[in-house]
Amino acid sequence: MTYLQLQHVTQRFDNGSEGLSEVTVDIEQGSMVFLTGHSGAGKSTLLKVLIGALVPTSGRVVVGGSDISRLGPRALPWYRRKLGIVMQDHNLLDDRSVFENVALPLRITQLGTREIGRRVRGALATVDLSDRGHLYPRHLSTGEQQRVGIARAVVNRPKIILADEPTGNLDPYLSRQVIALFHQFKDLGTTVLVASHDIDLIKDQGCRILHLSQGSLVQDTDGTKG
Amino acid sequence: MAGIKVNRERGAKTRSKAWHPRGGRLRTWLADHRRVALETSLSISRRIFGSLLVWLMIGVALAMPGLLWMLQSNLQGLSQQWQGNTGLTIYMALGASEQSLEEIATVLEREPAVIRFQLTTPQQALEELLAQSSESDLLRQAIAEIEANPLPASFGVILDSEQSYLAFEVISRQLSGRSDVEEVVVESLWLERLRDLSRLGNRGGSALITMLLAAAVLVSFATIRLAIDTRLAEMRVLALIGATRAQLRRPFLYLGSAFGLGGGMMAIFLIAVFLKQIEVPLESLLVSYGWDPELSAFTPQIILLLLTAGWVLGIAGALLALIQRLGVKNSS
Predict the structure, then answer these.
(1) How many CB atoms lie within 10 A of CB A132?
(2) CATH number, domain containing residue A8
(3) Mind listing the pLDDT tens digit for each residue in A76-134?
(4) What digits encode the pLDDT tens for the residues B83-107?
(5) How far apart (Å, rounded) are the C-alpha atoms in residues B273 and B287?
(6) A24, A66, A75, A95: most buried, per Cβ within 10 A?
(7) Which domain holds residue A60?
(8) Is B245–A67 a contact, with Cβ atoms under 8 angstroms apart?
(9) What DSSP character marks residue A58?
(10) A218: enclosing H helix or E strand
(11) Per the domain annotation, does A180 fall within a domain?
C-alpha cells in the first residue's frame, strides 16, 4: 500500500536554482528506501520537504492520505510527531542526559512519567544502550551518539523514519550496525527513508534505491528484486 | 538537517484532521504548563546569581517610578489637606496715616488676585488682643499700663488660590517696597509652591516613568534574547520533533514572567528600604514645621501595582525577544 507519495514536486529556491525538479515517486508502507546521489543532488531537500521544513514550489506531497505541503502551521507539529528524524550530527542536547534526550519527543506529547520511562528504556534497549541512560552525550562515542539519535527518533513509534546521512560520521562497521537497526524498524512496519551518498553501504541492502541528480530522480532501482 | 531553517508561510486555514491531536488537550496543556513552570524554577535556581542581577535591574527600574508615584500622591495629598485660601497680612508702620491706609486699600481693590480684604485699625487690634487675653489679668494689666497703642494697623487679605503664587509675590514685593508698610507676610505660599512642584512632577514624572518602564522591558528583552540564543539548538530540535509554537514560546514567557515578578518584588523591597531610611528624618522635618500630615506609604494597591507592572513588563520583554529572535511566523 502506498503510504508516501511525491507528485511532480519541484522545489525552487530564492536564487532561482532548483533543489527538486518534477520528482514523482510512490513509497510503500513498511518499506525501506535509500536516497542517493552526489552532494547537492537534492537528497536533503527532498527530506526537508517531507519533514515540512520546505514547502514545494509546485506538486503535492501526500503522506498517509494527507497533503502535507498544505498543512497549516498549527497542524505541522502534529504531523512531525509521526516522524522519526535522524540527522548526521545527531542534534543531541549536551545539557541533558541520554535518557532525557530520548525522552524529548514524549515530553512534547506530554505522556505520563511512567510511560515515558517505559518507552525510553525500550528505545535504549533497541539500540543497545540500556546502560547509558544516565550519561551525557559528551560521554559517548560517535557511534553511540548516533544510536541515541535513532532511539530518540523511534521512541515515539513513528510511522516514517527519515534519516539524512545517518552514517556520515561513522566507520563502516558502525554504519552497518545503524543500517541494521533501520532494517529492524522496517520489519516492524515502519517506512524508512535514508539519504546516503555511501553507495558501497547501500547497494547490497536489498532495498529500493532512488538516485537523484541535480534535483531530478534519474534512477529508481528496486533492490528487493535483485 | 542540522542547518534546517524553518521559515515558511503556510496556508493557515488548511488543516488535515489526520495530523491533529485527539482528546485530553486541556489535561496535556496543564501538564505542559506544570512542567515548564518547574523547569523555569530549576533554571532560575541554577543561575541564581544571574537571576538576582536581572531582578535587581528590573527592580531598580520599577522602584523609581514607584517612588515617584508615591511622592506624587503624597504631594497631592498634602496640598489637598490644606483647605483654606492663600492669604496676605500687611502690617503698616506705626503711626501710618489715614491716607496711607486709603492708598493701600485702593491698591488691593484694583488687584485681580485679591478676593477680599479687611482693615484692622490699631485700636481694633488692641481690643482683639485684650479680648484674647481676657483670662490673663497680668497681661491685661501690662497692656493697660502702656501709654501709647503699640500695635500697627494691618490688612488681612484673602487671595485667589487659583492664581499663580507668583502673582502673590508681585503684590507682596510691591507693598513691601512702601515706606509706610512695615512687613508683608504671605501665608501658605509654600503650599502654592508645593502645588506647582506637584504639577511639575506630574508632567516630568510621566516622561521619566515611561523611560524607566521601557528600561525594565529592555532588561527583560535582553535577558530573554540571550536565553533564546543559548537554547537555539534545542529549539531547532524541538521544532523538528513536533513541538508546537506555543510549546517553543512557553519556557521564555515563563522566564519573562519570573523575571518580571521577581523584579516587582525587588522593587517593593528597595522602596521599603528607602522609606525606612527616610522615615525618621522626614517625620522630624514635618514636625518641625508643625505638620502632622497623613502620608501614604505602602498600600496593598501599590504592592499589587508593582507586581502586576513587573509581570506585564517581563512578559512584554519576552514577547519582544521572541518576535525578534524567532519571528512571529517562523516558529514551526
Answers:
(1) 21
(2) 3.40.50.300
(3) 998 999 899 998 777 899 889 999 999 999 988 877 788 899 999 999 998 889 999 99
(4) 555 677 889 888 888 888 898 898 8
(5) 22
(6) A75
(7) 1-77+160-166+187-226
(8) no
(9) E
(10) strand A216-222
(11) no
Distance CA B200, CA B205 (A): 8
Q: Given this model, what pLDDT does residue A23 score?
A: 93
For residues B80 and B97, give the distance between their C-alpha atoms in angstroms, rounded to a whole number: 40
Are the Cβ atoms of B331 and A164 closer than 8 angstroms?
A: no
Q: B305, exposed or middle or buried, with CB in 10 Å at 0-12, 13-18, 19+?
A: middle
Domain CATH code at residue B114: 3.30.70.3040
- Verify that B202 and B67 share a domain, yes or no: yes
pLDDT for the residue B56? 92
- Same domain as B226, residue B306: yes
Least confident of A121-125, B203-207, B217-221, B298-302: B203-207
- Nearest by CB to residue B241, choosing from A55, A75, A85, is A85
User: Both A193 and A138 in a single domain?
Assistant: no
Residue B270 lies in a domain: yes
Same domain, A64 and A124: no
User: At residue B23, does pLDDT exceed 60?
Assistant: no
What total of structural domains would you count in chain A? 2
Phi, psi of A175 (to 5 degrees): -60, -45
Give yes or no: residues A111 and A149 share one domain: yes
Q: Are residues A64 and A107 in the same domain?
A: no
State the total domains in chain B. 2
**Any B CB within 8 A of A188 CB:** no
Higher-pLDDT residue of A28, B198: A28
Considering only CB atoms, B16 lies closest to which of A75, A89, A109, namely: A75
In chain A, which residues have their Cβ closer than 8 Å to the Cβ of B11? 70, 72
E strands in chain B: 87-92, 114-120, 154-159, 181-187
Beta-bridge partner residues of A221: A209
B115 plus B261 within the same structural domain: no
Check: CB of residue B266 under 8 Å from CB of residue B59: yes
In angstroms, rounded to a whole number, what is the distance separating the alpha carbons of residues A13 and B10? Answer: 16
Cell 553501504 found at: A201
Yes or no: say if A112 and B27 are a contact pair by the CB < 8 Å rule: no
CA distance B198 to B272: 23
Chain A residues with CB under 8 Å of B330 CB are: none
CA of B242: which chain A residue's CA is closest? Answer: A77
Range of the structural domain that residue B108 is part of:
87-187
Mean pLDDT, rounded, for B218-243? 86
- pTM given for the model: 0.65
Range name among A205-219, B158-172, B315-329 with the lowest pLDDT average: B158-172
Cβ atoms B296, B74 nearer than 8 A: yes
Is the model more confident about A62 or about B130? A62
Using only the alpha carbons of chain A, give its radius of gyration: 17
Distance from CA of A205 to the nearest CA of B (A): 24
Taking CB atoms and an 8 Å limit, are B242 and A108 in contact across chains? yes
Interface-testing mutation among B6, B14, B36, B240, with chain A (most A C-beta atoms within 10 A): B240
ipTM value greater than 0.90: no
Alpha-carbon span A30 to A36, nearest angstrom:
19
Q: Pick the most confident of A130-139, B23-32, B101-110, B230-239.
A: A130-139
